[in-house]
Design goal:
The protein has about 200 residues and is an alpha+beta fold. It is built from 3 helices and 10 strands; from the N terminus they run ααβββαβββββββ. Strands 5-6-8-9-10 form a 5-stranded mixed beta barrel. Strand 5 and strand 6 form a beta hairpin.
């Protein structure tokens, strides 16, 4: 009796083992180191550098393995967007502010160790820029590149200086759109820089 039950148990385990191995083999996840590399190559800065990713992609993510190379867009609103069009997933990778930090060069290390400047300390106050767009002003929203250009009249929801990102909307009931102030009365949708 004992021998018969052990044979049945062995037969059951051998039939289940290939099924478990096949399920584990089919369940593949995207290589997060690959995503980190793609983001660094796209933005032109490594992890922790000005303009580069603020931190590696969260290792708890279990993204389905993309059959093609994931596309990386950005920086847009301080982040790179990584997406797999074939499977429909998309993640946002926060970036360290790069334009002003890279232009100013490396952070001086003359301060004491506990008071040294780093990304967690407050930045020195910057002189306020003069607002060229005021809340309620009509603005021309532009999008396009060297080949085409599209524009539409909108209303500013907030004040904005040159280079700042503000909310604009078509009317009071429509959803806001984020746009960058280009000049007085003209805003541009971020991502269309070549016009």
């Amino acid at each position: 009796m004992f021998r018969l039950s052990s044979l049945l148990l062995a037969a059951a385990l051998t039939s289940v083992s290939p099924a478990l191995a096949q399920m584990q083999g089919n369940q593949k996840f995207e290589n997060l180191d690959r995503i980190d590399s793609l983001v660094a190559m796209t933005v032109g800065a490594n992890l922790g550098e000005p303009g580069g990713p603020a931190a590696p992609v969260d290792r708890r993510l279990r993204l389905a393995a993309c059959p093609t190379t994931p596309s990386v867009e950005g920086p847009v609103f301080g982040a790179a967007m990584v997406q797999c069009a074939a499977l429909g997933w998309r993640i946002r990778v926060p970036l360290i502010a790069g334009a002003s930090a890279a232009a100013s060069g490396p952070v001086p290390r003359s301060a004491p160790a506990y008071g040294a400047a780093n990304r967690f300390t407050r930045a020195a106050p910057v002189a306020a820029k003069e607002a060229v767009v005021r809340k309620g002003d009509p603005v021309q929203l532009m999008a396009g590149n060297a080949v085409f250009s599209v524009s539409r009249m909108m209303v500013a929801d907030e004040d904005g200086a040159m280079g700042e990102t503000i909310r604009v909307r078509e009317d009071k009931k429509s959803a806001p759109i984020f746009a960058q102030v280009v000049q007085m009365g003209v805003v541009r949708i971020p991502g269309f820089n070549d016009f």
